[in-house]
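Sequence in, structure out. Go.
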Amino acid sequence: MSNNFKGEKAKLTVFFASAVLLLLILSIFLAYYAAYGDILFTILGNKSLKAKKYDEMNLSAQKGQTVFFGDSLTEFYDTSAAFPDFTNYNRGISGDTTDGMLDRLDSNVLAIEPSRIVFLGGANDLNHGVTPEKIVSNIREILTRIKTALPDCEIYVESLYPVNPYTRPVYLNSVADRKNSDILKINEALIPLCEELGCTYINVHDSLTDDNGNLNESLTADGLHVTEDGYAIITEILSEYLLPSNE
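Output:
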C-alpha cells in the first residue's frame, strides 16, 4: 500500500469523523433550541451585564408599579403578556442565586419603588450546595430589606417549583443537584416566614407536580424550567392575587 493511499485514507477518516462530530453537535443544539427556543440565548447571557441593563432600564421605569424578581423561572416568564392589565417589570436573571439577588436588590428593584413585588428564588442555590436553612435565611434578608425600604409595598412570595430529574433526553435535563426534598423544606419554612413578615405566600408548587411529587413532565422540557403550558398554570394562580376580584 503506497504512502499516498495511506495519506488519502487518513484524510478521509478525519473528514468523516469531523462530519459525524459536527452533526452530533448540530443535533444537540437543535434539541436544545427545540426545547428552549430563543430563550436558549438568554440562558447563555452574562448575569452582570443583565443586572447592569436593568439598572439602565430603571431610568425610564415608572414608580409604584409591579416587579417580578427572581431567576430564570422569572426571566423566561413573559409577565407583560401574562398581565397586560397593569404595568410590570421583569427583573429575573437566569442562574441567579439569593446572594446575587441580595446584591442587586437595591439597584434593580428598590430603585423604582414598586408598589408590589412578586419574588421567586432559591432553586439555583441548591445547585451550589447551599443548605435550605441558608436559603431561607437569605430570603428573610431580602424580604426584610424590602419591608424596611418600602413599608407599603405588597410582597408576594412564590413557592419554589418542583423539579423532575427523570426527563429525557438525559443531556437536556437541568435538575443537577436540586432535590424535591430540599424544595419542600424551603417551601414549608416560607409559610411561617411570610406570616411573620406580613408577606403573601403563594403555593404554585402543588399545581405543577405529578403523582410522584416531581415537576409534571408535560410541563417541562428539561426537568427544571416550565413550558408555556406551565406558565399558563402559574398565571392563573398569580392572577387570583394580582388582579382585582370580579366579585
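Check: The radius of gyration is 22 Å. Residues 103 and 142 are 10 Å apart (CA to CA).
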